[in-house]
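Quick one, C-alpha coordinates below. Sequence please?
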Protein backbone atom coordinates (compact mmCIF):
# COMPACT_ATOMS: atom_id res chain seq x y z
CA UNK A 1 0.00 0.00 0.00
CA UNK A 2 1.20 3.51 -0.75
CA UNK A 3 1.04 5.86 2.21
CA UNK A 4 0.62 9.61 1.80
CA UNK A 5 -0.21 12.66 3.88
CA UNK A 6 -3.88 11.76 3.39
CA UNK A 7 -3.53 8.29 4.91
CA UNK A 8 -5.32 8.26 8.28
CA UNK A 9 -3.11 7.56 11.28
CA UNK A 10 -5.22 4.49 12.12
CA UNK A 11 -4.41 2.97 8.71
CA UNK A 12 -0.75 3.92 9.11
CA UNK A 13 -0.55 2.21 12.52
CA UNK A 14 -2.29 -0.87 11.08
CA UNK A 15 0.38 -0.99 8.38
CA UNK A 16 3.11 -0.63 10.97
CA UNK A 17 1.51 -3.40 13.05
CA UNK A 18 1.83 -5.64 9.99
CA UNK A 19 5.56 -4.78 9.82
CA UNK A 20 5.20 -2.73 6.64
CA UNK A 21 8.41 -0.81 5.98
CA UNK A 22 6.56 1.82 3.93
CA UNK A 23 4.16 2.50 6.80
CA UNK A 24 7.09 2.83 9.21
CA UNK A 25 8.79 5.25 6.85
CA UNK A 26 5.67 7.39 6.46
CA UNK A 27 5.19 7.46 10.24
CA UNK A 28 8.83 8.51 10.68
CA UNK A 29 8.44 11.15 7.96
CA UNK A 30 5.43 12.66 9.70
CA UNK A 31 7.28 12.70 13.01
CA UNK A 32 10.33 14.27 11.33
CA UNK A 33 8.25 17.03 9.75
CA UNK A 34 6.58 17.70 13.12
CA UNK A 35 10.02 18.08 14.73
CA UNK A 36 10.01 14.74 16.59
CA UNK A 37 12.50 12.88 14.40
CA UNK A 38 15.28 12.63 17.00
CA UNK A 39 12.78 11.56 19.68
CA UNK A 40 11.43 8.81 17.41
CA UNK A 41 14.97 7.64 16.61
CA UNK A 42 15.68 7.34 20.34
CA UNK A 43 12.36 5.57 20.95
CA UNK A 44 12.98 3.12 18.09
CA UNK A 45 16.42 2.28 19.46
CA UNK A 46 14.92 1.66 22.90
CA UNK A 47 12.18 -0.59 21.50
CA UNK A 48 14.76 -2.55 19.52
CA UNK A 49 16.98 -2.98 22.59
CA UNK A 50 14.07 -4.09 24.79
CA UNK A 51 12.80 -6.53 22.16
CA UNK A 52 16.29 -7.96 21.69
CA UNK A 53 16.67 -8.42 25.44
CA UNK A 54 13.28 -10.17 25.59
CA UNK A 55 14.33 -12.48 22.76
CA UNK A 56 17.51 -13.40 24.63
CA UNK A 57 15.44 -14.31 27.68
CA UNK A 58 13.73 -17.00 25.57
CA UNK A 59 16.67 -18.98 24.16
CA UNK A 60 14.65 -22.05 23.15
CA UNK A 61 12.23 -19.95 21.11
CA UNK A 62 15.08 -17.91 19.67
CA UNK A 63 16.91 -20.99 18.42
CA UNK A 64 13.74 -22.48 16.93
CA UNK A 65 12.59 -19.20 15.31
CA UNK A 66 12.14 -19.03 11.53
CA UNK A 67 11.23 -15.67 10.01
CA UNK A 68 7.87 -15.79 8.26
CA UNK A 69 7.27 -14.25 4.85
CA UNK A 70 4.74 -11.96 6.52
CA UNK A 71 3.98 -11.26 10.15
CA UNK A 72 0.57 -11.60 11.73
CA UNK A 73 -0.36 -8.02 12.67
CA UNK A 74 0.31 -7.12 16.27
CA UNK A 75 -2.25 -5.24 18.36
CA UNK A 76 -2.12 -1.56 17.34
CA UNK A 77 -3.00 -0.55 20.91
CA UNK A 78 0.12 -2.34 22.18
CA UNK A 79 2.19 -0.69 19.44
CA UNK A 80 0.81 2.74 20.36
CA UNK A 81 1.45 2.21 24.08
CA UNK A 82 4.96 0.97 23.38
CA UNK A 83 5.78 3.94 21.13
CA UNK A 84 4.46 6.30 23.81
CA UNK A 85 6.43 4.62 26.59
CA UNK A 86 9.61 4.58 24.50
CA UNK A 87 9.18 8.23 23.52
CA UNK A 88 9.08 9.03 27.25
CA UNK A 89 12.15 6.80 27.83
CA UNK A 90 10.04 4.62 30.15
CA UNK A 91 12.07 1.40 30.01
CA UNK A 92 10.03 -0.36 32.69
CA UNK A 93 6.69 0.07 30.94
CA UNK A 94 8.24 -0.78 27.58
CA UNK A 95 9.87 -3.93 28.92
CA UNK A 96 6.63 -5.00 30.63
CA UNK A 97 4.63 -4.49 27.42
CA UNK A 98 7.14 -6.47 25.39
CA UNK A 99 7.42 -9.28 27.95
CA UNK A 100 3.67 -9.95 27.64
CA UNK A 101 3.94 -10.59 23.88
CA UNK A 102 4.48 -13.83 22.00
CA UNK A 103 7.93 -14.44 20.56
CA UNK A 104 6.61 -13.72 17.05
CA UNK A 105 5.20 -10.38 18.20
CA UNK A 106 8.45 -9.47 19.93
CA UNK A 107 10.30 -10.18 16.71
CA UNK A 108 7.76 -8.10 14.79
CA UNK A 109 8.30 -5.21 17.21
CA UNK A 110 12.04 -5.51 16.74
CA UNK A 111 11.57 -5.35 12.97
CA UNK A 112 9.26 -2.33 13.27
CA UNK A 113 11.87 -0.60 15.42
CA UNK A 114 14.56 -1.37 12.84
CA UNK A 115 12.44 0.08 10.02
CA UNK A 116 11.75 3.19 12.09
CA UNK A 117 15.45 3.62 12.89
CA UNK A 118 16.41 3.28 9.23
CA UNK A 119 13.75 5.79 8.19
CA UNK A 120 14.81 8.26 10.89
CA UNK A 121 18.42 8.05 9.75
CA UNK A 122 17.48 8.55 6.12
CA UNK A 123 15.29 11.54 7.00
CA UNK A 124 18.01 13.01 9.21
CA UNK A 125 20.52 12.81 6.38
CA UNK A 126 18.38 13.72 3.40
CA UNK A 127 15.28 15.44 4.79
CA UNK A 128 11.63 14.79 4.06
CA UNK A 129 11.54 16.53 0.70
CA UNK A 130 10.30 14.33 -2.14
CA UNK A 131 12.83 14.31 -4.98
CA UNK A 132 11.83 16.00 -8.22
CA UNK A 133 11.84 13.33 -10.98
CA UNK A 134 12.52 16.03 -13.56
CA UNK A 135 15.63 17.24 -11.76
CA UNK A 136 18.85 16.63 -13.74
CA UNK A 137 21.13 14.01 -12.30
CA UNK A 138 24.29 16.09 -12.71
Amino acid sequence: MAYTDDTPMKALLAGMASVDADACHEFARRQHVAGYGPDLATAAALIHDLAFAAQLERPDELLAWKYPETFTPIDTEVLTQLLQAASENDRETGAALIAEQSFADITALSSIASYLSQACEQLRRFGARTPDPQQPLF
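The helical segments are 9-17, 21-33, 37-56, 59-64, 76-87, 91-99, 103-126. The mean pLDDT is 91.
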